[in-house]
Amino acid sequence: MENVFVHSIFIPGTLAANHTVTFLAPWDCQLVHVSGVGSGSNAATLKVGTSADDDGYITSGNLGVSGTPLEWDQITDFAGVLAGSQFPHIVKGTIVLVTITDHVSHAAGVYVALTFSKG
Predict the structure, then answer these.
(1) How many angstroms separate the Cα of 52 from the Cα of each of 22, 64, 95, 108?
(2) Cα–Cα distance, 29 to 21 (Å, whole number)
(3) pLDDT 10s digits, 65-113
């Protein structure tokens, strides 16, 4: 299991705007699982990609609500053009973007976990 790592994002409180989280891939890796949830009953949406294509890995999907996460864990869940319905391979130094889009209903207590395997 030492070849697996998780990048987690937590946004406390009620969303009042969209959020984009960026980070550099620390080494060559593959995105193999994403889960996301809000603590309340109002949904937000998620996109995952790169600085060149913000939905290149996951084009869009609702986060889970009321503490029940939704997940992207099948190769077909990664339908962005950079992934091509495969677990995306990410080269070291790639700027990864995670975009959480708020809606009029305002999601709260948003948590997203991205699981990567090295290599």
Answers:
(1) 12, 27, 8, 29
(2) 18
(3) 999 999 999 999 999 999 999 999 999 999 999 999 998 889 999 999 9
The closest of 42, 44, 47, 43 to 82, measured between CA atoms, is 47
Q: What are phi and psi of 77, to 5 degrees?
A: -70, -20
Q: How far apart are CA 82 and CA 23, in angstroms?
A: 17
Distance in angstroms (rounded) separating the CA atoms of residues 62 and 34: 12
Bridge pairing between strands 108-118 and 4-14: antiparallel
pLDDT tens digits along 37-75: 999 999 899 999 999 999 999 999 999 999 999 999 999
Residues 40, 102: contact at Cβ < 8 Å?
no
Distance CA 56, CA 33 (A): 15
Domain 4-118, architecture per CATH: Sandwich (2.60)
Radius of gyration of the chain (CA): 14
Domain ranges of the chain: 4-118
pTM over 0.85: yes
